[in-house]
Amino acid sequence: MDRKLVILGAQWGDEGKGKIVDLLSENYDITVRYQGGSNAGHTVIANGEKFILHLLPTGILHPHVVGVIAQGMVVDLEVLDKELENLKSKDIPYEGRLIVSDRAHLVLPYHKLLDQLFEKKSGIGTTLRGIGPAYMFKFGRKGIRLCDLSDEKKFKSLLEENVEFVNDLCEKVFRERSNLEVNEIFERTLRVFEKYKEFVGDVSRFLLGTDKTILFEGAQGTMLDIDMGTYPFVTSSNSSALGLANGTGLSPKYFSDAYLLGIAKAYTTRVGGGPFPTELKGEEGDRLRDLGGEYGSTTGRPRRCGWLDLVALKYAKEINSFDGLIITKLDVLDTFDEIKVCVAYELEGERIEHFPASSKILEEVKPIYETLKGWKKSTKGIRDREDLPPQAMEYIRFIEEFTGVPVIMLSTGPKREEFVWLREPQRTKVSYS
Ligand code: GDP
Ligand code: IMO
Ligand code: MG
Q1: Taking a C-beta distance cutoff of 8 angstroms, is the pair 373, 338 a contact?
Q2: Closest ligand 1 atom, CA of 293?
Q3: Region 4-101+200-255: CATH code
Q4: Which listed ligand is nearest to 331 at the C-alpha?
Q5: What is the H or E stretch that residue 155 is in?
Q6: Exactly one of 42, 54, 62, 111 is catalytic; which is it?
Q7: What pLDDT digit, counting tens, does each position of 354-395 carry?
Q8: 91 labelled catalytic
Q9: Which among 1, 33, 139, 378 has most CB atoms closer than 10 A?
């Protein structure tokens, strides 16, 4: 088993990372979230119970795992409070096994307000969790970090400055009055901080000082990466492997011995606006949405659905340098006569083999498909590779050959125990039955 395992979304998010992190963190001591915030929605179905984690690392559901919120995240303390209270109510104690970086920035009510106002014009379709504005303040050097909360005077003055700025912006640019109250935000924030301040600490030092096993849990997906995704229809953090170093505060050298695992659905979904070359707008798309239960885990919005885009997946493999892939939701394709995969794009008669930078070009390209035979047999809950239909294995082989990455596991249902190892799991071994 690799001491460091990185799990990354290889598409536009919601690939089933939560399920896989839950499964594999059984064998890890520490799970780290390091970018994004409560825009994430990671679903776990274990022992008949469903959890959706937004801010907390998914591994925290295992009582032996230490959960870490690293400095690259933007933290909404009220969401943190809600999630921790939920764990408590489910008899999952977290005392002594949570660390929140003192360098992480806060998401405050004015970030959520701005997210709503910006959305009116941008059409990005954000989750409205204040993520983009929180990162704007961070990079504009106006952010407030957890370490600032120990100095109430400093916190108050930073808050006053920010609220004044946001009020001005609301009135002068958006012609709206905000009802932001400095004192209310101040008191609410400190009330939650008081409750959890013993968990706040130096995450980079903690990670450097341990020889325990660590699973790094990416949120969102590669195609939503602020630099490498379908800009501007992206999230505001590096949700590809690029986010590892800046999100943890550690050198890229620290990750040189990590195993990088990409998670991809057997088809494609995205939620919100932006280009999606293989999107199916008619009945086939509705069928995928219904069969896959494709509704957002954070916002409940219907997800846009389409065939597997191998041009995008190969691009994700290249920039992340994946060592292996896990393909999830194979069972959703069980009833299709034929399954298409996009192997190139076409634009004005020209074949494009590489993923273009421009979202405008991506809006215009037409997918070039290869059609594979469906297996027309239930794979739901299959645990043994011998039970997989040959056409399903051909589909997986096609993905491996196209991307050049071994598919190490298939997920055959939402439950923890619904999976099949395809490669001898020498490096990561789990025991659910
Ligand atoms: P994440 O954001 O990557 O963690 O993914 P989400 O939790 O947002 O969305 C994935 C959805 O698919 C959740 O509802 C999971 O319970 C479900 N799911 C995960 N793996 C499988 C699978 O192999 N088959 C089926 N049918 N559902 C799955
Ligand atoms: P997980 O971790 C899918 C999308 C939003 C929107 C864009 C920007 O569950 O895979 P933001 O609120 O981040 O500013 O929204 O990114 N988005 C996600 N889509 N899964 C997610 O997370 C997402 N987090 C953000 O829908 O298009
Ligand atoms: Mg999700």
Answers
A1: yes
A2: 14
A3: 3.40.440.10
A4: 1
A5: helix 152-172
A6: 42
A7: 999 999 999 999 999 999 999 999 999 999 999 999 999 999
A8: no
A9: 33
